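Obj.: predict assembly geometry.
Materials: sequence records (below).
Method: joint structure prediction, all chains together.
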Amino acid sequence: MPAPAPGGAGFPLRPSRRPGRRRIAVAYALLAPSLVLVLAVLAYPLAWETWISFTDFSSRGGRHPTFVGLENYRRLAGDSDFWRASAVTGVYFSITTAAKLAIGLGLALLLARPSRARPLVFLAVFLPWAYPGGVTVVAWYWMLNPPLITSYSVVAADVKHAIDAVAGAGAYAFLTVILFNIWRGASFTAVFLLAGINAVPTELFEYARLDTRGAAQRLWWIVLPLLKPYLALAVFLSFTTAFADLANVWMLTGGRVVFPVIGTRAYWLGIRSGEFAQAAAWSLSLVPYLALLLVLLFRWFDSPEEQSA
Amino acid sequence: MTRRARRLGHGLLLALAAVYSLFPIYFITIQSLKTPQEDVFGNALYVRHATWENYTELFAGSEARVRGYVVLPRVPYLVWVANSAVVLAVSLVVTLAVAILAGYGLGRLQPPGWRWWRRLLFATYAIPHTLLFIPLYRVVVALGLDDSHGALALMYATMALPFAVWLLSAYYANLPREIEESALVEGASPAMAFLRVILPMSRNVLVAAALFTVGTVGNDFMLASIFLLDPSKQTVAAGLGVMDVSLEELVAVAGVNLAAIPIVVACALLARGYVRGLTAAMLEGA
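Observations (raw structure tokens):
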């Protein structure tokens, strides 16, 4: 930060209609490290990925990718695997998000009520998210897909075969991944929504108690609307895990991905088959959904009219 | 419903929430305390003859060992723990330092279009680093960080930064102006007013940002295994977790579990601050 002007109070801090030039310069100077960090790491990869998705770059081809236009995307649109993976990703996202919101909201409301056990239970609820995911994913792996030698392996295998027999091969693996995602994500959602509930003035809840009949009504008409921005943010964060969390999919299924989501499929194409261009097109196919979600999120979470201060 | 029945129900729900949350962690801890015999013939849900064997194995040195029919691989566990600690510390410091500057610059000084800058930064949260590993690797090589902890710390910092900037800028945006004005009247420089008054006030928000960073970094083992090829440079989760074979070893389970203890202690101490920080950021400006 540059040294302040000698003797003076430096830049005026109260935002005025025409902010001082100096203040703007300082603001951008403070913003610069973040932008440099993010751009240095991500700008080139994003540009590269986009460019490569319009070429025929693969480990089998030459060193220099040639431009093929929309060919990769055309192939994607005609690929039944892609539509299947899209559907699976959609189902995965819907199920995990709905469950995370429901469980998270339940836990948050439970923890919002004062009680003697609350600090301890809060810590317990906080742990699934705070405990390193690299550990808990191993825990779930041992619980649901145990190694061959343990005492409960036979039981787990029986459950697996029973579920796969009913719902099709790979259903059990899919379920494992979903359960882990919900368990970890609901913990974050719960703590986040609890903070949101705390941020709502208590009087509002007092009025709500007078105005509504029954807890269900109160939840629907008062609590949910008040929490809407935080719920929107939770949905967004959930979406990013639905395809970015592929490491967990990988781990829980031991690398045998039978129910591919877009993320695992793209990773597979890139690292195993060397089809870099195809992999890029797969990854980028999610961008429209992401953009849509961001627009909705900013509308609910960051709407200018709410910020009158 | 009587008052007592209601209280009982509430207590039961609390107990259920705790069990649901803790069960997987309990489960894996139980398994890690078992002897190979009990692992095969014991009960899945409890341990009869607890042993620290799996934990002490981790420190038994770097010679390959034979136990039963299994040849245990060389595991430089302490080196990995040190690596994890270094990477975590560096990414924490970088994330917080950079996020504080940006949070103050955007939220407090509010240059034209600050909202859009904030949105832009936040949108990068959705970028999955794991899918970009090929071009990311090129960036890492170009920066001369090939096979170094710096690469990983840099990447972790960009993963946690968007949320941290959002929290801090929201908090700084609507903090009453009078707070630092009184310091300015006393003759302090803006930088001083920030360091002495604003920064200590935002302690809980910083805790929230820091714990979010820890949660994000602790979740990763894939990037670590992609960008750190040298086994002596691995982090704990990547070193023990990625190989399919070692994942099925109780020693590996013990190893990752042991490494989690400091993080759990930190969380236990800071959990209250975490919620308060989130609430503060939301109150001041959602």
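Conclusions so far: Strands of chain B lie at 65-67, 70-72.
To do: check interface contacts against the pulldown list.
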